[in-house]
Amino acid sequence: MPTVRYITSDLAAEHTDLDVVLGSLEAEQWALDTPSPGWTVGDQIGHLGYFDRTAALAIMDPEGFQASSRSLLEAMAAGHDTTLDETRTMPPAVLLSWWRDGRATLVEAAGTLAETARVPWYGPEMSGKSFLTARLMETWAHGQDVADTLGITRAPTDRLRHIAQLGFITRGWAYAIRRMDQADAPILVTLAAPSGDTWTWGDEGAPDRVSGPAESFCQVVTQRRHVDDTELAIVGDRAMEWMTVAQAFAGGATNGPPPGSF
To answer: Domain 160-245 sits in which CATH superfamily?
Structure first.
């Protein structure tokens, strides 16, 4: 079981890898449309920066976070997404600096978390480890959108293990938010890690199976790829059903790109 410090270190490394990409962009590239409808490269980073800041607030000032959360949810209920209002007015250089400051604040706040800490968020509170894993997943997934926009192929790392673990344990969540019958059939997930290791989750005797590159699995559970556009091998109807609805992130049910998008 990874420690809070270990996950925090991997989160910071994920930030750094994305920063290498962003630091090389020309100003006009920040305005490019990404695979997420209605979002530019700048919007992707604005989204990350907003929630990195609120994540730091949730750790350091839970009451302040709760007040901020209520305001955001009320605005969203009224059909207004305030998370990007500020950043859409920023020049690219200012936005990049703002994102860097926010991510540094989050990493600093994460350093204060105890191993058993609980952190409030926009749904049920989370363990500190799950909370930081979710931030790592978000950074990687939105970074994938940026990379896809720019035509960049990122070198996968074993930090994907955090995201794959999250993808596996959120199987029931993906069904619940779609009001589908609970996913109770055993499934074995066997993934090839970038380092050459093999990662497994689930029941070794399960007839339904998912196997292939860890990167492909992470792209599917974060809805950055349709399963048909990956190298994953799927055995069994319940495994395929899961891979078509998988959603490792919070919020309402959403659909990833259709087959043939990549």
So the answer is: SCP2 sterol-binding domain (3.30.1050.10)
Integer Cα distance of 47 and 246 in angstroms: 22
Q: Which residues are CB-neighbours of 85 under 8 A, at least 6 positions away?
A: none
**Given the structure tokens 């069994």, which residue do they identify?**
236
In tens, the pLDDT along 176-186 reads 999 998 778 99
- pLDDT value, residue 133: 98
CATH number of 4-150: 1.20.120.450
Give the DSSP H/E element, type plus range, for residue 99: helix 92-110
Residue 191: strand pairing partners: 199, 212
CB hemisphere CA count around 155 (13 angstroms): 4
Half-sphere exposure of 259 (CA within 13 A, CB side): 6
pLDDT tens across 142-156, in order?
Answer: 999 999 999 999 999
- Residue 201: enclosing H or E segment and its boundaries? strand 198-202
The whole-angstrom separation of Cα 214 and Cα 171 is: 16
